[in-house]
Amino acid sequence: MFDRHPTPAMNTPDDPLDELLSQWQVHGEAPSSFQREVWARIATNEGEPTTWEKLTSFLVQPRGWLIATTASILIGATIAWVETRPPRLNPHEAYVRSISPFASLHLASH
After folding, report:
1. pTM of this structure
2. Which of 18, 83, 90, 101 is most buried as measured by Cβ atoms within 10 A of its Cβ?
3. CA–CA distance from 98 to each of 4, 92, 101, 103, 106 (Å)?
4. Among 86, 62, 82, which Cα is nearest to 74's?
5. How far apart are CA 47 and CA 56, in angstroms?
6. DSSP designation for 86
7. Which residues contact 64 (CB under 8 A, 6 or more apart)?
8. What digits encode the pLDDT tens for the residues 61-79?
């Protein structure tokens, strides 16, 4: 996938940049409060996440997937149960349906 052979654009052994980089040194120290100030700046820039950010962060975790999937299945099952359960009949309609193969015709005439 990657060609490991040097190309003209790559550094060669006699590249003057290699010598400069080997001589380069960083001098100086960070102030004692540097780390505290950096974290304070990060904290003020981040702020409190919005509700949408909290929700999306929760849903990308496996626990969030499991809860969302379970909730979807329960909601779907509840809707299916409500839609497919038989209607409530008064005693007369229930009796006619239980004994007559033509119950729908008989009940429609009343």
Report:
1. 0.38
2. 18
3. 83, 10, 8, 8, 12
4. 82
5. 17
6. P
7. 58
8. 999 899 999 999 999 999 9
